């Protein structure tokens, strides 16, 4: 056993589990994010009205919320490796169904992809925690970065492909090749990577093989704090993605510029995602969080409310800084999930947090739209989004303080 801990026995980099899991994290977003840019083309081709078109963005979020709850049962029935295989197969099957240039192909495939991604959102962090218990926080940043890269690739490549002459169903599903590669890569490599790397990073001695269910962890107050944290930071991200382009256009930005601002915001999340855990790992985390709050609220205010003539560069600066901070918030949410002190509860905590979080994220943009309609103005809605990081950071404080209590009085450690 000890011989496996030697670096000479580590599998090659291309077979290591973390490399495969980061690729899979990109697959969880790339096929979903590819639809929105092509929506006008799809509407015209299939004769969809606005309500039906809106389902293409609402359905995945609803699937993320509803089907995340299935993750603990799948992990009990199978193991992590087979569950990851299943979710990649679902992503592959959904993309294949969407090659049909029909409304049922589009929506049916989107639901199947949404189910696979929902399982992945809950299971991949658990896999990282099991394979790399001592390096989980660092690698969760890579997982978050993979989500951002996947979203950016999917959104950025669709219209160029359509412009090059590809049919819309090919443009949004070309990533099926990457899904197939991910499946083959996972099947070839996971046994080697998992067997040696898990041995080298043995789980804590008090870990138990039997996992807890969602009903059992749902009785714990700190679990609902984690759910609230995941819900608030997810709602912040999707509310910004939904409303910032409309708000920028209302202030005089053209449609292409507002879309580019959103792309910058999304790509800027990469460094924040990778370094996010360090925000709460530092010895002076209280002061760091206060400064972090001021920075993200200020950046969002610049992004959304800059009205200085000739100073549009402030909008881009706001997008860069706010994107980096948003990426950090996602990683922080994930560290609270995988840092849960009782390891056998982590699958259920992950499922509950992802389920609740994405359901909140699916509902909030709709609720903000309803509020804007009732008020007859977008300003109060945008201000509420700008202030939302204060809620997320307050929840971070509460969770971090609970994690620092003695083990007898808490169930978390971050």
Per-chain topology:
Elements: H1 17-33, H2 39-46, H3 50-67, H4 71-77, H5 80-97, H6 103-131, H7 136-163, H8 168-173, H9 176-200, H10 214-217, H11 221-250, H12 255-275, H13 278-281, H14 285-305, H15 313-338, H16 346-375, H17 379-403
Describe the structure concisely for a colleague.
By secondary structure, this protein is mostly helical.
Characterization of this structure:
With 414 residues, the chain is mostly helical. The chain has helices spanning 17-33, 39-46, 50-67, 71-77, 80-97, 103-131, 136-163, 168-173, 176-200, 214-217, 221-250, 255-275, 278-281, 285-305, 313-338, 346-375, 379-403. α1 runs antiparallel to α6 (103-131), α5 (80-97) runs antiparallel to α6 (103-131) and α14 (285-305) crosses α15. The chain has 17 helices and no strands. 77% of the residues lie in helices and 0% in strands.
What coarse outline follows from CA principal-axis ratios?
globular
By helix and strand content, what is the structural category?
A: mainly alpha
Number of helices: 17
Into which percentage range does the β-strand content fall? Answer: under 5%
Order of helices and strands: HHHHHHHHHHHHHHHHH
Span of the ends, CA to CA: 29 Å
- Low-pLDDT stretches: 1-8, 202-208
Mean pLDDT: 83
- Count of extended strands: 0
Main β-sheet: number of strands, strand sense, barrel status? none
How much helix is in the residues? over 70%
Instruction: Tell me the radius of gyration.
Output: 21 Å
């Amino acid at each position: 056993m000890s011989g496996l801990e030697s670096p000479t026995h580590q599998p090659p980099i291309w077979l290591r589990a973390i490399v495969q899991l980061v690729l899979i994290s990109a697959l969880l977003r790339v096929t979903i994010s590819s639809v929105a840019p092509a929506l006008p083309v799809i509407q015209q081709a299939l004769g969809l009205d606005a309500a039906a078109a809106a389902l293409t963005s609402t359905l995945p979020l609803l699937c993320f919320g509803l089907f995340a709850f299935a993750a603990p049962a799948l992990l009990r029935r199978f193991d992590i490796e087979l569950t990851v295989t299943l979710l990649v197969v679902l992503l592959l099957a959904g993309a294949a169904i969407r090659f049909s240039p029909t409304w049922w192909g589009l929506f049916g495939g989107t639901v199947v992809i949404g189910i696979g991604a929902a399982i992945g959102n809950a299971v991949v962090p658990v896999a990282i925690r099991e394979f790399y218990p001592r390096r989980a926080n660092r690698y969760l940043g890579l997982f978050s970065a993979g989500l951002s890269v996947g979203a950016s690739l999917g959104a950025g490549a669709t219209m160029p492909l359509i412009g090059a002459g590809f049919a819309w169903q090919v443009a949004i599903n070309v990533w099926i090749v990457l899904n197939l590669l991910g499946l083959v890569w996972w099947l070839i490599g996971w046994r080697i990577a998992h067997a040696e790397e898990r041995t080298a990073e043995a789980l804590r001695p008090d870990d138990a093989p039997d996992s807890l269910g969602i009903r059992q962890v749902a009785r714990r107050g700190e679990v609902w704090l984690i759910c609230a944290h995941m819900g608030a930071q997810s709602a912040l991200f999707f509310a910004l993605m939904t409303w910032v382009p409309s708000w920028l256009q209302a202030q005089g930005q053209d449609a292409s510029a507002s879309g580019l601002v959103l792309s910058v915001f999304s790509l800027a999340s990469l460094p924040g995602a990778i370094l996010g855990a360090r925000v709460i790992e530092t010895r002076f985390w209280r002061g760091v969080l206060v400064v972090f709050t001021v920075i993200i609220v200020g950046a969002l205010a610049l992004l959304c409310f800059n009205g200085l003539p000739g100073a549009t560069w402030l909008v881009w600066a706001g997008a860069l800084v706010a994107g980096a901070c948003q990426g950090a918030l996602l990683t922080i949410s994930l560290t609270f999930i995988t840092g849960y002190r009782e390891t056998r509860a982590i699958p259920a905590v992950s499922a509950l947090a992802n389920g609740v979080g994405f359901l909140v994220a699916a509902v909030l943009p709709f609720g903000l739209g309803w509020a804007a309609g009732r008020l007859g103005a977008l300003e109060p809605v945008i201000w509420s989004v700008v202030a939302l990081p204060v809620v997320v950071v307050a929840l971070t404080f509460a969770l971090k303080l609970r994690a620092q209590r003695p083990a007898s009085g808490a169930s978390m450690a971050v």
